[in-house]
Amino acid sequence: MPIIIIQPQAVAPPMIKDSDASSDSSSDNGGGADIDIDMTGMESHPQSGSGGAGIVTPGQIITTDSQWMRGHGTQLVNSSTIKATVAGTVSRTNKLLSVSAMRARYIPEVGDLVVGRIIEVQAKRWRVDVNAPQNAALPLSSINLPGGILRKRTETDELAIRNFFSEGDLLVAEVQGLLGDGGAMLHTRSLKFGKLRNGLFLAVKGQGGGHGGGVVKSRRQTWTIDSPEGGGKAIDVILGVNGYVWIQMHVHGEGVTAETKVGLNRLDEAAASAGNVYSSQNDRIDRETTREIARLRGVVTVLAEYGLRIDEEMVMRGYREAVELAKEMDAVEDIYLGGEKGDTLARILSGR
Amino acid sequence: MEKGTVELQVWHQKFLRYLACEGSPPAPGRISSRDPLHDKSSSHSPSSGASQSWFAIGIALIFSSFLKSPDKLNSETQIPLPAVNMPREAEISTNEKQFLKTALTENVRIDGRLFEQYRPLSLGFGEEFGVAEVELGKTRILAKVSAEVTVPYADRPFDGIFQIVTELSPMVSPAFEVNRPTETEVLLSRLLEKTVRRSGALDTESLCLMAGKKCWAVRVDVHVLSHDGNLVDAACVAVVAALRHFRKPDTSVEGEMVTVYTAAEREPTPLSWLHSPYCVTWSFYGEEGEMALLDASWKEEQVQVASFTVSLNRHGEVCQIAKLGGVAVDAVLLLKCTAGATVEVKRISEMVDQKLEEDAKRRDKGGLMAELRAENERES
Amino acid sequence: MLAPAKPINCPLASCLAWSACPTKKFTNCSDSELSLFRLPPSAPVTTPSTDTINRFDLYLRATSVLDSVFSHSPARNVAMPLDTSTYSMALLRVDGRRWNELRRLHAQIRTQSASDGSSYLEMGHTKVLCVVTGPTEKLASQRMASSSSSSLLDVNISIAGFSSVDRKRPSRTDKRVSEMAFTVQQSLNKAVHAAIFPNSTISISLTVLSQDGSLLASLFNAATLALVDAGIPMSDYVTACTSGSTSSYAAADDAADPLLDLNRQEEQELPFLTVATLGGSDRVCALVCESRVQVSRLEGMLAVGVDGCKQVRTLLDRVIRERGAKMIEEGAIARGDVVGAGDEMDTEED
């Protein structure tokens, strides 16, 4: 066997210039740039613009000043030293220091709009995969029951639990509360929420929670594109905060955007159509609409792939650019957004 | 499944043979009236009949565990048991854990030992060659060596075959199942393998009878009879002692013919033994693992934050080191523990040597051995 | 040109028997011998990664000269036998490294877009791919099986059949592999803040693409990187490397040198151990040695290994930081806040 001789130290010279063992200096020096967040005094260091600007890594000392409180992504050692436990950026809320990871799995918070998938039906509740460390629970009492929006659940409902949601169904819901161990409780007690159909699911994996690209928590997680390209029907986009995305054909008076248009006085009508809410049958979707749904999917995929922010503004901008791009290339029919076209789109969107 | 049955048969035969040697199987009444597990004095007095009956019980225990295995296998293959039904051992309670930890910070071990003190280690040999039983506190291990003539591996024509097989049966704890190696068992067998086999304690080349055609296959079966912590150290002593105690039948090679002599024809010969490695296990306690305890009991093992097993021989050669995870422990402390282990190994080594000598003396009634040996030499 | 030698601060090194270090031989060298390899002024000088005691200067000068001489000569392509006599003369190893030199360490994170965290790591020719999935809900069976150890992590190692010289059919029940998986799992388990994720599990899948020594160490490093990428809170990096000794177990060889980061060939011939430390400190998470070695060699080997782990930590940290800087540049993540004493700066996010 021939022995391949490796050029020593050709690529990355491993050097510890400072062998000072008293502090965690090696990690501070490792970034190349002089970003020293270590506060061994009361002065603050301005952040330099290049290199490892603002990134702290696990084990790095953020501060030794006892005035700070530790938040997420940090640990307290020796009663006043706060060290980072994740790689990310430091954020400060009054006296609370936390590190938001560059990328982390979605951690549920109350009020989050999430897209989920039923994975287990239990006696009085469903277990829902929401891309979180634990499955969320959706109690039977937290959904809209057919035949009247504010009705007590009965034993009949319990027996017919699979008629509402069964394994594999997708739904959009809101996080109502958190359990002691971090598990989420969901509810769909609004016409905005409920079962999903007539569309396409997309998981923006590992980037939920708004850290490092991915779906960003914003004012509007769901919106309707009234007149998409090609003259198809209106399309709803639902960006679950948990990194799950749903793109569907808009059905009048139903689904995510229903409540924004239907007033409170229309509850009766809504209740009457509630029987339809738990249908798993897709309506007929015409070719134009299907194509635009696929195009939107392409846009979200590009955003996710290039680590860009995913919110209404970016998706809509991306969608318009994608339409333009297709037109420029003189192929309106071509909605494919992979390869070079994806590159181009990402470049346009990131403004570079 | 097949393997289990074959093993069962082998054991069955061995058991019958053993009983035949002994005369009659031990009567159940006799077993219960003489509880060998708590009768230490009798279990090690070499000449008394108690040791023989005690040994028979040991075999019977193993035998009964094998008897159970086919049923178990059937139930597994036919009706997969849900994981919920898996028998589990009761864990140490949270409160007790806390108590143990607090006691250690006060320099007190719950059994009153010093931090660097072993439990009493005793070693006994069976009537047959190559059987050793080790008791370390309440941990009991039985090792049995057997040898047969087979064909060597194609890639190692000049080496014999040497194998260490560990068995943690449900008789030790309901958490152990037959034919499903638990983490404990895998780690135990790997440690023994590294300590004894990889370190070259047994000269496998000497097991070769005819290059590429015939060799001895030496197999050590390690049976854990009861588990009260520190299986590794006890098992290692048992394996080394059993191998050194073992005598394989004498052979002669003439041309293509290998003759294996019975014990009556020629005195069996010991294995070619190169060095005796022993394991010493430290376990660590405290936030940063700053407290080191030698020979932890089962209770202590459940509370430990890390463990560190170092295998050495009395010449101060490290054969193996294993700190497989756990809390990070200061490197200097690990070095200190290694130094402590060298002392401990010398002590264990002396003990094993002495016991082997005693056993040899006992067997050598009136210099009969020397006579037989001399006879061997004349013939060969 | 050379970094000034500093006394060692590492408490471990102070107890290290430096009689074992290679400098000893060079202190006997006359100046004329050294001047044979006078350094051309333009030649790059690589400084060693560790500063040690003063007499090292001499040794370093000699070896860096040798290094530059070798790099320009065709003789570099000739394999040097691992012969102690050759070694002690040139103080270079089979692959041209010095005793305290790591092989090229190349690492990347976020290589697998479908995973929560992933990494690819090369230590010399040992190549490992790691994928982290989770935290996710524990399955009912997992919950039962690990209730006693209550382990958050689940480590799987698969070694590709083509990874070593002899093609080997991968076996599911290889005890050596399960022992490695156990070691990685147990070490990382203590570094990860498990209490944050009750009833959850994180699965770490490691795939070995190529083996050329230091396998366990590479597995450690790849797993650590992938965990950091997945944003799993952990108290510090767990980094690992191997260290060996040029002595054979038989001889009480006083002239034996410790070696850092062994390749496959060296592993086969020399005693070695794998050290994993927490955050480049002197605290050892895992220590595995499978070869016979004199107990007196251990101290030197361990000291060199612990020091190597520090270097590895710096390298891994750099990989993470570079990625983070890139993300900030791209605007994917917001810049962090400055932790100042009293100044009010805008907080960009909660």
From TrEMBL, chain A:
SUPFAM superfamilies assigned to the protein according to its UniProt record, in alphabetical order: Eukaryotic type KH-domain (KH-domain type I) (SSF54791), Nucleic acid-binding proteins (SSF50249), Ribosomal L27 protein-like (SSF110324)
Entry annotated with the keyword ATP-binding: no
Any one annotated GO CC term: cytoplasmic exosome (RNase complex)
GO BP terms, alphabetized: CUT catabolic process; exonucleolytic trimming to generate mature 3'-end of 5.8S rRNA from tricistronic rRNA transcript (SSU-rRNA, 5.8S rRNA, LSU-rRNA); nuclear mRNA surveillance; nuclear polyadenylation-dependent rRNA catabolic process; poly(A)-dependent snoRNA 3'-end processing; TRAMP-dependent tRNA surveillance pathway; U4 snRNA 3'-end processing
Single Gene Ontology MF annotation: RNA binding
Domain RRP4 S1, chain residue ranges per copy: 105-176
Pfam families the UniProt entry points to: ECR1_N, S1_RRP4
Alphabetized UniProt keyword annotations: Exosome, Nucleus, RNA-binding, rRNA processing
Region described as Disordered: 12-52
Family membership: Belongs to the RRP4 family.
Protein name: Exosome complex component N-terminal domain-containing protein
Organism of origin: Zalerion maritima
TrEMBL record, chain B:
A GO cellular-component term linked to this record: cytoplasmic exosome (RNase complex)
Boundaries of every Exoribonuclease phosphorolytic domain copy: 117-249, 276-337
Organism this protein belongs to: Zalerion maritima
Top-level division of the source organism's lineage: Eukaryota
Leader sequence residues: none
Keyword Nucleus: yes
Protein name per Swiss-Prot or TrEMBL: Exosome complex component RRP45
Basic and acidic residues compositional bias, start-end: 32-42
SUPFAM superfamilies: Ribonuclease PH domain 2-like, Ribosomal protein S5 domain 2-like
Family (UniProt): Belongs to the RNase PH family.
Region (Disordered): 26-51, 358-380
GO BP annotations, alphabetical order: exonucleolytic trimming to generate mature 3'-end of 5.8S rRNA from tricistronic rRNA transcript (SSU-rRNA, 5.8S rRNA, LSU-rRNA); nuclear mRNA surveillance; nuclear polyadenylation-dependent rRNA catabolic process; rRNA catabolic process; TRAMP-dependent tRNA surveillance pathway; U1 snRNA 3'-end processing; U4 snRNA 3'-end processing; U5 snRNA 3'-end processing
Compartmental location: Cytoplasm; Nucleus, Nucleolus
Principal place of residence: cytoplasm
Keywords: Cytoplasm, Exosome, Nucleus, RNA-binding, rRNA processing
Keyword Isomerase part of the UniProt annotation: no
Automatic annotation (TrEMBL), chain C:
Predominant cellular place of this UniProt entry's protein: cytoplasm
Entry GO CC: cytoplasmic exosome (RNase complex); nuclear exosome (RNase complex); nucleolus
GO MF entries: RNA binding
Keyword annotations of the record: Cytoplasm, Exosome
Alphabetical GO biological process terms: nuclear mRNA surveillance; poly(A)-dependent snoRNA 3'-end processing; rRNA catabolic process; U4 snRNA 3'-end processing
InterPro entries: ExoRNase_PH_dom1, ExoRNase_PH_dom2_sf, PNPase/RNase_PH_dom_sf, Ribosomal_Su5_D2-typ_SF, RNase_PH
Pfam families: RNase_PH
Signal peptide, first to last residue: none
Residue ranges of every copy of the Exoribonuclease phosphorolytic domain listed in the record: 101-233
UniProt key word Zinc: no
Localization per Swiss-Prot or TrEMBL: Cytoplasm; Nucleus, Nucleolus
Subunit structure: Component of the RNA exosome complex. Specifically part of the catalytically inactive RNA exosome core complex (Exo-9) which may associate with the catalytic subunits RRP6 and DIS3 in cytoplasmic- and nuclear-specific RNA exosome complex forms. Exo-9 is formed by a hexameric base ring of RNase PH domain-containing subunits and a cap ring consisting of CSL4, RRP4 and RRP40.
The family this protein is said to belong to: Belongs to the RNase PH family.
Listed PANTHER family: EXOSOME COMPLEX COMPONENT, EXOSOME COMPLEX COMPONENT RRP41
Name the record gives this protein: Ribosomal RNA-processing protein 41
